[in-house]
Amino acid sequence: MKPILKNKGTRIVTGIMLILAAAGIAIAWLYYTNINKSVDPRIKHARLMYGRYNTYAADNDHEKVLLLLDSISEVYASVPHYRNSYEMGVIQNNRASVFLSMALLGKDQEEFRHNFFALAELYLVEGIDYYTNWMRLFGSKTEQELMLVVEKEFSLDEALKNDRNLHAIIRNRVNEMRTAQIETPRRLSVSYTNLGIIRRHQDQLEEAYDYYAKALELWEENHAAKNNMKILFGQPPEEQSFFRKLFPPDRN
């Protein structure tokens, strides 16, 4: 009898585990289905393309990254709401990162380094303009004010006004903009840090200092800006603790 009881108990536990697994799958399916429905269909393809960005960047495949960013930019630029959005700033900052990386890796090719630094600076300045202008327009708006803006723009768009998920799409966009109000100063801080790196490698140390100082003014926990400031004064960079990497300071 004992083996029978044991088998019966095993079957019960297995059954419970299968039920829990099925419930988890169902919840996950509902969750991601709802998220998918709330993504603006006009720029959904750009979001999907961004999924390849990290892979190309990790492989240092600069050509593929730049071509991918061109395609993503075309999608956002085709929709008036996103044409001057913070997302365009992100794209320009990513382009700048590619050329900055190429400049820093090409130590034995001074002419190429000069050109790559110049291109990185160009895209950083353009990205800063996008970020700054977006924050000027939307950075201090309340959730209700953002809702009014997005509802007006999205409801009048022919591609969306008959979409049965329009309310979820509008709600999701407002949430994205609310997050961007917090995140964009950090993005600006990263851009100024990168400008400081360019100036340091061009031996324009006073300007480099000013950019690092601006970066820390925008985001005092910018570890890269802190370390570059240390390097500027001939001090060793500070290694970020494993615990701090896992649990960074509150970005708010």
Please characterize this protein's 3D structure.
With 252 residues, the chain is mainly α. 79% of the residues lie in helices and 0% in strands. The protein has helices at residues 2-38, 44-50, 53-58, 62-77, 80-83, 86-105, 110-138, 143-156, 166-201, 205-218, 223-232, 242-246. It is globular, with a radius of gyration of 24 Å.
Oligomer: single chain
Distance between the termini: 62 Å
**Fraction of residues in helix:** over 70%
Helical element count?
12
Order of secondary-structure elements: HHHHHHHHHHHH
Which CATH architecture of the domain at 42-142 and 177-246 is right?
Alpha Horseshoe
CATH-assigned homologous superfamily of the domain at 42-142 and 177-246: Tetratricopeptide repeat domain
Largest sheet, in brief, is: none
General shape: globular
Strand content: under 5%
Structural class, from secondary structure content?
mainly alpha
CATH topology of the domain at 42-142 and 177-246: Serine Threonine Protein Phosphatase 5, Tetratricopeptide repeat
Radius of gyration: 24 Å
- Low-confidence spans: 20-35, 242-248
Specify the CATH class of the domain at 42-142 and 177-246.
Mainly Alpha
What is the arithmetic mean of pLDDT? 85
Secondary structure: number of strands: 0
Task: Based on the model shown, name its key terms.
252 residues; Serine Threonine Protein Phosphatase 5, Tetratricopeptide repeat; mainly alpha
